[in-house]
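Lay summary. Proteins are chains of building blocks that fold into shapes, and those shapes determine what they do. In this project we predict the shape from the chain. Here is one chain we studied, written as its sequence of building blocks.
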Amino acid sequence: MNDDQLLRYSRQIMLPQIDIEGQQKLLDSRVLIIGAGGLGSPVAMYLAAAGIGEIVITDDDEVDLSNLQRQIIHSTTDIGKPKVTSAKETMLAINPLVKVTPLNKRLEGSELEQEIKAADVVLDCCDNFTTRFAVNNACVKTGTPLVSGAAIRFEGQLSVFTPADGECPCYNCLYPNEGELTESCTQTGVVSPITGIIGSMQALEAIKIISGAGTPLRGKVLLLDGMSMELHTMVLPKNPNCPTCST
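And here is the predicted shape, written in a compact code that computers can read:
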């Protein structure tokens, strides 16, 4: 690290759980963010600020006025732009030292698997079950750690899946793959800070996994009730009959 990097990341380097070695791991890492919306916004901004070496972000949507209430990586002047283009501009404005690779499309099939295999950590910030299961399948196949977040109404959810650990459950252990989720922010709504809270937690879990600091939220599901401001942690056992990870 040069002097500018040492100063930029000094507050993290001061932490004994991270130190120089952990910061260097962040600088050498590559993460994949699925979705540049409500969750992907704080994830991308905090990981860029923290010094992740390369951030690949994928989304096939454009910035819309209705996004701006919660998707804080975009601004009013970005309306009509591809979300990944807007996200890249904001990330580089925060930290020009990171490499940002925007993919203005929905990753599928072998291309999705290839990008996940190349990542040190995948952050699922999407808003539909089809993509979530596809991402989970590819992470299980490639052994790539997955940080999964969800937010709707005043509620949030967070979990970490580390398929290289044979005892860790996967997303399919939590939810059966039986059709599309009927609720979304479009139909049900979401209060903006919930996405910020969960997205920030996702970024923290990714930093912990890469740097080796702390204990990731693997084998557990964290549930946030924003109305009562209560957090609950649920133990998630591995499903021995899971169609995705049991074999």
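What the prediction tells us: The beta strands are 30-34, 54-58, 99-103, 121-124, 146-152, 155-161, 220-225, 230-235.
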